[in-house]
Write a structure and sequence with these properties.
Bound molecules: zinc ion
Order of helices and strands: EHEEHEHEEEEEEEHHHHHEE
Shape: elongated
Number of helices: 8
CATH architecture of the largest domain: Alpha-Beta Barrel
Largest sheet: 4 strands, antiparallel
Length: 325
């Protein structure tokens, strides 16, 4: 448990001989516990599936950063040596200098900074990314990939990402950025979901509801936590197929998604491993989960025990009674 959340940790013993180069490599990765037994080196590998920041966490960061960044001018930038998911182009560093930050926004799980002369600096937090405004005097933490000095000299914007699945990209204008989102197939925002679009998406698919909710092409911003919470809110079983839903059920799910996301934004998101908001604070919504991470605990509605199953490649939590098939 971390910050009160089940991080889906599974321990599986893997046995390697002492001389096996794999064991040395895995040891160097530093994510393994070691012990000696019967002349063999036993490596207990901790397999973790990290929940990633979803729409409410990203929206919370945006709301924190906005008042602190709006109108500020970037005076210098420092980029780390290691590449993130998308490589940083050298010329971007000089392109940024002197630009004023005109808007701070969000699209799905992406954070967008609109700069002077139409430039758009776009961040994705990946699994462990942190985008924060911090006092400039604060020592730069390890894995800080981008540091931006601002014309308010006592603060800096920093992007830190331990596992480097996040990204920072500079787009020359909005049209290019939008084209990038289109090419990536990014679906509409949950708050702007057209009822007919949503109904059609469900009616056309034989995938289960959990898979549909996780598909960023159908709907932007929802991940594992809020998919489970929304299905509980809508009293729909995660295994139900999209095409099996009646019109009133699809409407109920659409409204449930909005309700759950707004509720989580009000609580400043869920603090899951490595997530902090734009000021470095943790969120509170993890204390309000109805089903996520609550396997074996009583349902808040009916007291039946919450179940966890594997669905669409992810751990899925639901109440078998409230969300019957
Ligand atoms: Zn229940």
């Amino acid at each position: 448990m971390e910050h009160g959340i089940n991080t889906e940790k599974v321990k599986k013993p893997l046995i390697f001989s002492v001389l096996n180069p794999c064991s040395i490599l895995f040891g160097l990765l530093g994510r393994f516990a070691w012990c000696k037994s019967a002349g063999l080196l036993i490596i207990i590998r901790e397999r973790r599936k990290f929940p990633v920041p979803e729409l409410p966490e990203v929206e919370t960061i945006v709301r924190e950063l906005r008042p602190r960044l709006l109108g500020r001018r970037i005076t210098a930038g420092r980029i780390g040596k290691k590449n993130l998911r998308r490589p940083w182009k050298t010329r971007w560093s000089s392109d940024l200098i002197g630009r004023r930050i005109e808007a701070v926004g969000r699209r799905g799980k992406w954070i967008l900074l609109r700069l002077e002369k139409e430039l758009h600096l776009v961040f994705h937090l990946g699994m462990t990314g942190q985008l924060t405004v911090v006092p400039a005097r604060l020592i730069r933490a390890l894995h800080t990939h981008l540091t931006m000095r601002l014309d308010q000299e006592d603060i800096q914007l920093r992007f830190r990402d331990i596992r480097r699945f996040g990204s920072v990209t500079l787009f020359a204008n909005e049209a290019i950025m939008q084209s990038f989102f289109r090419t990536s197939g990014l679906g509409p925002e949950p708050f702007d979901l057209e009822p007919r679009y949503w109904r059609d998406c469900l009616a056309r698919t034989s995938r289960c509801l959990k898979a549909v909710l996780l598909d960023q092409r159908v709907l932007a911003g929802v991940g594992n936590i809020y998919a489970d919470e929304a299905l509980f809110e809508a009293k729909l079983h995660p295994k139900r197929l999209g095409l099996s839903l009646r019109s009133r059920e699809s409407g109920r799910l659409r409204r449930a998604i909005v309700t759950v996301l707004k509720r989580a934004i009000d609580k400043r998101g869920s603090s899951i491993r490595d997530y902090v908001d734009g000021s470095g604070r943790e969120g509170d919504y993890q204390n309000e989960f109805r089903v996520y991470g609550r396997a074996g605990k009583p349902c808040v509605r009916c007291r039946h025990l919450i179940r966890r199953i594997r669905l669409a490649g992810r751990s899925t939590h639901f109440c078998p009674r409230c969300q019957s098939k």
